[in-house]
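Protein: Pantothenate synthetase
Species: Azotobacter bryophylli
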Amino acid sequence: MITVKTIRELRAAVARARGEGKRIALVPTMGNLHAGHIALVEKARQRADFVVVSIFVNPLQFGPNEDLDNYPRTLAADQEKLFGAGCNLLFVPGVEEMYPGGLQSQTQVSVTGVSEGLCGDRRPGHFDGVATVVTKLFNIAQPDIAIFGEKDYQQLAVIRTMVRDLNMPVQIFGEPTVRAGDGLALSSRNGYLSEEQRAIAPALYRTLCDAAAAIQAGERDFDRLIRDGLAALERAGFRPDYLEIREANSLRPATAADHQLVVLAAAFIGNTRLIDNLSVEIAGQ
Ligand SMILES: Nc1ncnc2c1ncn2[C@@H]1O[C@H](COP(=O)(O)OP(=O)(O)OP(=O)(O)O)[C@@H](O)[C@H]1O
Ligand SMILES: CC(C)(CO)[C@@H](O)C(=O)[O-]
Ligand code: BAL
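Structure follows.
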């Protein structure tokens, strides 16, 4: 595995791999890697011959009061994990390499529809920042495929929409959320939790499971399910940001006629904001 910091080095290595007839995969990350990221890398290995992982804590997708400065940066440990997972090239650009003209003058990519509501409302500008950096990473690495986690469900929908609308020649794969034994979705931000907060955290997934089970059992009063879910999160010690039930593909609010649903939630424990989601397929329809 080689680690490069510049677009020029990345392009040269990818051109060599392509010249050898290799299929290129890209796994974009913000680092502080855990088993969820490694599962994406392993999937990339299965589907391609040359795996590029990027680690870039993208300032463009953070709001002014968010955790950009505190976001964990653990390059040496990440390199070790990626080497073990069969990554071929690690791209770790600095902010200047990615945004040489500064953040203000950066052309931005903005996806309508699926980026509205949910995290799009709670984190204004977030998905413009994500769509912009992912477009840049696609243009820089020109991968055949790119792999993302379903944990960031709305992000995956935004990227799929962007690729479709802008005819980007890259195939997108979404991978299931990797969870701890108690159900908590693995996330770099879990590292912010104290022992006491970590004990509260699995209630987020439990709440999603309860809502999904109620839908499977025939409940279609989604407003009531949302109210119950928000109350359950509060009882557990969360400060809920949102809990919503959406149609799984369009992300519009679900109706009783929909067959593929997703329950999505974001909630704070102290200053730490966790997100999670659970898809619900209504069988036999
Ligand atoms: N538990 C997980 N299972 C599968 N994929 C995941 C998981 N957590 C993150 N990913 C995916 O890894 C990629 C990089 O995500 P990122 O580096 O932001 O990690 P993260 O753990 O989600 O961090 P954060 O705490 O900032 O949300 C994204 O495609 C994301 O969806
Ligand atoms: C896709 C991504 C790497 C873009 O910065 C980021 O949003 C993430 O880690 O999910
Ligand atoms: N995992 C999504 C990146 C973010 O929260 O900014």
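Remarks: The pocket of beta-alanine (ligand 3) is lined by residues 30, 61, 152, 155 (CB under 6 Å).
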